[in-house]
Every structure is written in C-alpha cells, then in structure tokens.
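Quick look at the format.
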Amino acid sequence: KILKSGAHENPQTHRMRINTHNEEDVDDLLDEETAIRRWGCNRTDAPFIFVHIGKAGGGGVRARIAASALDYNRKSWTEYSNDPTYYYPILDISSSTVPMMHKGKFTSSSAFNFISPNATIFHSDFSFEGVVYCAATTPLGQAIACPFDWIRDPCRDADNDDNSQDRCDLVYMGHNLLGSELHWLPDKYLVKWWQDTPWGKEYSTKDNTHDFIRHAIVSRGAPTTVPGEWEVHYKIPEIIGSKNDTSANKLKIPGLHCYQVPQGGRIHRQRYIEEAYQNCSHLKEPIVDQLCNYVIKEHNKKSNQKLQSPIQYAQMIASLPVIRVTVIRDVWSWLLSKFFWHPNFYSRNSTLVVGPWKGEPSFATRSYNAQRKNETVPPLIKCDDIEEAAYGWGANWAMTYLSYLCGEHCLSGWISNQMTLDEIEGQGAYNLRHSFAV
C-alpha cells in the first residue's frame, strides 16, 4: 500500500493491488502525520480480518459481520462450523475475460496469538485464542520464524473451484494482535506480496536467483529431516556473518529441527507447538530479524535515506494486501472495563496475582465460591490505587492496547528492550492511518 509502482493498475496482479484511488491517496500513505485514509469502505477484497480488542465493544460487530454472509442460516453466529451453506461473495477481476466470484468462508478465533515467552504478564490477555511462543521483533521474523499450520486450510475457496495458494478467501475475527495473519497466510501469498514491496523489488528477478527472502518464506517450515542443517539461500550466511561453508548453502545450528505439528485437539496441538518452538522458531528468530533489518537498510541506502526508521516495520505491515477492521474505545473507559472484567491479574510486583475490589456484596460472593472450590481469594485492590494503576494493571493493559495497534513484533521488541515506548506509539499511530481499512 505504500508503493508508487502502479502495480494496482495491472489486472493480472489485482489480488496484490494497492488500495488507493488516486495519487493523493498514494502520497498520504507515505506520510505518518496525515489523516486516516479514505479507501476502506465498500471493499470486496479478502482476506478480511477483524482485529478484536477485548472490551472495546467489538463483540456486536463480529456478530453483524458473521450475519452479513449470504445464505446465513443459523441461530447463533458462533455456530458457523455447523453451517456449510453460507459464504461471502468475493469478486476476482484478475481474469482478462469474465470476473470470477469466489466463496469466502468465516472463521472465529481459530489462530493462536504468538507472544514472547518472556511476556508472561501479558499471556492471560490472549487466553481465549491461546498463546504460543514467538519472540521475533520484526514482521518478517514473525512470518518466517514462526509459521502457523492450520488443522484445515481456511484460505481455500469454499466451493473448491480454486486450489491455488496465492489467494486467501477468508473472513477472520479474533482477539489477535495486528499482523498475526503473517503466521498463517499461504507461502505463495506471502511471496507474491513480498515481490511487490519496495524491499522485495530489490531482489526480484525472473529466476529468483537473488531473492533470499523468497527462499526463506517457501522453506519456513524446514528443516524437517536432518536436525541442525537448514538449507538456506547462499546469501543468508553472508549477511548474518556465519562461519558455515556458504558453498553448501546450509546453516548448521545445533538442535534445530522443525518437525511437523500433528493433527489432534487444540490443547494437544498447543502443547506440541510450544515444545517445537524451542527446537525451531527460537533458533531462527534472531537470524530472520537480522535479514529483515538488512533488507530495510539496503533499501534505504539505494533511496538515499540516512537513518533506518522503526516506522518502516509499520510500512511493511501496511503493505500486506489484507483488509483489516477494528473498534477502538476511549482508553480510560477501556481500562476500567478491563479492571472489573478480569477476576485476577498481576500486581505492580509482576509476580503477585491480585483481583479487583467490587464492593462488599461481590467480595462475599467471591469468598463463598472460593471456599466451595477450596481456593483462596487473592488480595483485592481498588481501581483508584494510583500506585497499582501506574505500575501494575494500568501500565500492563495500556501496553496491551498499544500492542493491538502496533503488532506482535512491538510487544516482543518492548519485552526485549529493543523498542522504546515512543517507537511503539509511532508505529501504532501509523498503523491506525495506513494498516486498517476502517
């Protein structure tokens, strides 16, 4: 979406087109100080992603989006898996002859949240979808080092008339941070996006000889055979300063083994994915983050930009051809809703669990229920305890709010002291203008 290449005028690349209507919009996308863009309404593109910030009032919006499907025929919008008839009409005009209508499908909270294992104080905020680990601090690091394989492919057209994997006819909703789709979008979809970005264009050729990011995307699930040997593009060992034999195009990393996650129940799969993180994603994260920083720096050199601005991570997320929608709420009202909604949360100590004080009647009920379960009521605090708000629940949930708008990589960067609060706020503000359609 930050391109001026005119790719959106090519009917053969319609699925990757830039969502702009005139040159003024294109200029707006390059300026983080401009107003929210105008292109978001009346779109028929996919995937459509609703970023649901919990307690911001998005539940009713999800119900209405679910009910907007054609042939909608169910009593509850959450029973979509039991209704095979409904679909969303998605028009594909990439064909030079007659436009094709694809049938988009709906799924809700089906993808995990990928959060740093060191961000334990934030894990409970994402328990609905479930938390698996990823500590990558760049968008490419999130996409390549931490791929997510669905139990069933959700991107395939509902009527199976299109088996290609360079499109994704999906309407997805969940309490997932901005950019979480980088984990589950098909490899061919990501490759097509990458080669249309200003960074990817630096390396794109007809035979893809020099495109090491493309190679990393299509092999992001490797190695699955010989542990410790990751077959990579010849350029990668050179970039990361590896002492490996570059002629063999292999990185030898002790313990690296990216075995496939088996089919099975959600809890079983989550446990298996977390175990696999230590043997695969965790070892790849610093390498791919370094590659992401490299392509940005090289692009800046060629375009005579002296400094590498953190805002370019936000530009990378904004360039992804998806339609994102969210609902935001006044932050003070939102914080109070979070305070009274959660029965337990971390105190300013970050190791002590506390709860919200809701008055004597509520305390009596909670004590009675705890006794029946042989549990202990944690220390309860009041919402006007300034110390707890400033250094405990208030500060933690304020960062959660920012992370929804900035992205998963921002939370990882904050936890690892690689991003400042100003940088996170800057990326969040940019994303509100350029990464969300509405």
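Next, a different chain entirely:
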Amino acid sequence: MCAACDGHLGHVFENEGFSPTMERHCVNSVSVKFVQEAPLNPMEEAKVSDGEGGGGSMGKFVIPLVMLGLAYTLSSVVGKVMDAFMRGG
C-alpha cells in the first residue's frame, strides 16, 4: 500500500494458464512510469506470488467447471453412441 495515497500496485491472478509461471499481473496504470527505451538490464519472468491470495481464486473454479462441462458433453456423446449401438446401427 502507498503511504501517500493508500493505493496499491495491482493484483496477481494465479492459475489461469496464460503464462509459464501461471500468474497474470494486473498493474494499476497510475503506478507505472512509461519509459520508451529498452531496459538496461532485461529481467526474466519469475514467479512472484506465494499462492496466498491476490485474486487467483477464479482459477480454482474455472478448471472444475471446464472439467464438468467436458464430462457432461462426453456423457451425452457416449449415450448417443450406446443408443445407436443398441439399435443396431
């Protein structure tokens, strides 16, 4: 938190699958100063969150929902295949 304005840098969203570190960073634009030149010491992407919050709870719900949807779709397809098999074609 900023001592002057009580603002914060942004959020870290975890486990969404958009990056190799499984993190997505949402940075508040007021906290960034744009510099057009390339950085003198480029940095490699590294994991910054310890998994304790930061807005990553959505990933905990997305994967089970995708799996549930996949199971529902597959059960429908398997049911139709079995019906066709039982009717003889």
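The chain has a mean pLDDT of 76.

See the schema section for token definitions.
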